[in-house]
Amino acid sequence: MGQGSAQLTSGQQPAPGLTHRWRWLLTGILLSGLLGGAWLHTPVDPELLRQPYSRVLYDRDGELLSARIASDEQWRFPPSDQLPDKYVKALLLFEDQRFFQHPGVDPLAVAAALWRNAQAGRVVSGGSTITMQLARLLYGNPPRTYWWKFREALLALRLEAQFSKAEILQRYAALAPFGGNLVGLEVAGWRYYGRSPTQLTWAEAALLAILPNQPSALHPGKNHEDLKDKRDRLLQRLQHAGYLDALTLQLSMLEPLPDGRVPLPDLAPHLLNRLISEAPGLYRYTSTLSARLQRRAQQVAINHSERLARDNVNNIALLIIDNQSASTLAYVGNETWQDNPLYGPAVDIVRQPRSSGSLFKPLLYSVLLEAGELLPASLVLDVPSWFGGYHPQNYDRHYRGAVSAEESLLASLNVPAVRLLQSYGVGAFQQKLQGFGLTNLFRQPEDYGLTLILGGAETTLWDITGAYARLAAVAAGYADKPARLLTTPLEGRKKPSAIPVSQGAAWMTLTSLRNRPDSQLFSSQQARTIAWKSGTSYGWHDGWAIGTDGRHTIGVWTGNASGEESRHLSGTTSAAPVMKDLFAALPLHAWIATPTHALRQVTVCKADGYLPAGNCEITTVTAPANSHFSKTSPYHQRIFTDIASGQRVNSQCEQPSRMNSASLFRLPPVADYYYRQHQSVQAPVPPWRHDCQPEAVQSRNQNGGRQLADIPLFELEYPTEGTSVIIPAETGGLPGRVVFRAHHQLPGMRLFWHLDDVFIGETRHIHEQAVFSNFWQHRLVLTDTEGQVIERRFTVLSPDGDSTGQANLATFP
Fold first, then answer.
1. Pairing of strands 767-771, 738-744
2. What is d(CA 790, CA 753) in angstroms, rounded to the nearest whole number?
3. Which of the residue ranges 219-228, 335-344, 353-362 has the most confident prediction, judged by mean pLDDT?
């Protein structure tokens, strides 16, 4: 060992100064590591990461439906959860081959860049990794200086420490510039190629991988040859790396560059606007819509808009719902002929409250079936009816006397519907409608009154189509769910209660609606069974058609967004043809199978559909299994006749052995009068034998008069008890008169009229009496020669609603 060397021998200790320095060095390294680690993992400023993204709407398969530009006027779609494999391979090969190995900064790439810059004498390469490029984009593309490069490197290290490699790629792809105001891979794919990046070819993916290096290279007027050469060289590198075979490379290099920008699709603008208002915190909306069906629905609406515009019907809205999944498949919020701005094409009519017309009638029918209030065969009266000052009329201005509940529904008769609603109760029915998901019924029941069933309330196309879809879903045994728009439901939404009818009542209601007399509208679709209801609002403002084939429910509204009327508007002629063409675009489905477990058989009188009391011809009908229909026939009467003469007798004037028993179907006189005009004539009631008298009891009925214990032989059609009458003056200021009307079932019977205990006339055959009366409360009494008496009280009002006698008179309409 040389003299200049020194060794520590056994038992010797290092010098105190050396040990002290090592400790400080190790402590410094440890503290630096701790501080560096803490710095790396300190969350990146959220404001730096936050970007003003565009709002984008996709269909259930990821196809773009509509988009809205970001607040900074850039088309910047939110980051995608998955990037196409072709693009990732092309991007990494072109920009950052060691992306998955470096921590955000690639020392080899930096060294190579410094060497190239030194040789060139200027900056020709930055050596930036994808993470550093992302940092630069987050900083807003600052000047290319060494200071900013250093800051970008520091931010890249922090990004790598806090995000996965996949997340970094997704963020870069969402923020990379692609020329003009196009930011991000997603919008670039749609604007340059008209499709999602997941559907790009190798040539297209390669171009989009290199384009952020030269964002303006695709601008019209630029020399595109250099860009194509760069793309082709990248394709060759991809083939050399084993990603492409020789044939794919050859075909890819033949693909031209895009020669312009493709407009973004805008298939569901109203739905996107709705989702933005309902979920403003989201930027990417994945809907349940089918892009294919949405295009078809939009085209159907466009095709019909020209036809309807000729009738001054300028707006169409429609929905298609899958009953099984409750998914909305098509949503056309508003279509106008040639998108005329005069007709409010931006208004989302799907959400606009409009008069419901007669669309609530099937819902009332289903509720009454469920409650055991009627059966499809049960007769309901269709006669002139007054409810205070309210006098409903049928659309055709005719009365049928009595019709089955099912026939009344199919013909959409107004008078029977109002009478049924009065019997059931407006408030009770309003609650049931809310149970069907109708959200616009927020007023008190008395505000709607009986007009609730005829369009006196408002609903939206969204609510009413959803209600019919739920009715069909329950009928088919599907889960009862409200219609949805998004594949993932929004949080915080209250789960609705089940609709207020069972499977049996739902199925019976829709089965009745299958048999519409105007169903020839769908004669070209004979293989398809459709249950549907049309509706037209008072004043010709809204034309509706809602229908279901069991699997799908379609709702169509036609009218004017401005509320302007059109005398040519009708649910049947305006909206139903649109619905027909929409069903033709759907796959065929068999009608709903009969849910035998949800139904039961009931024995009823064949003539009127009520339970027999031992005095009628019977038949068997279907009822909901859980309903409790208990109404016995009110229109069958057992009578006894003299065997010899055939005249009516009773036990007070004839021996039982000399009497025949018979059951007669008899309607009340007013109903009988109108019934005879549409149906076969009922057998006349035999007259009483001269020595017999009716078994009369003087009992006051619900209208305040007196009648026989059995069905009366005559009735007052007008006025009803408590009626209020307003009578304007006749031409020339002469006092007007009000026309009262009665009906008697015995031909030639005389009626005697008394007003306020004063005899005012006698009628025979046609029982009408024109009455002059002052403004006050009055009492009208009618008697016939058999001694039957009817009494009514009514009030004559002045035109201002007063009954003190200060106005002129006229004939009641």
1. antiparallel
2. 10
3. 353-362
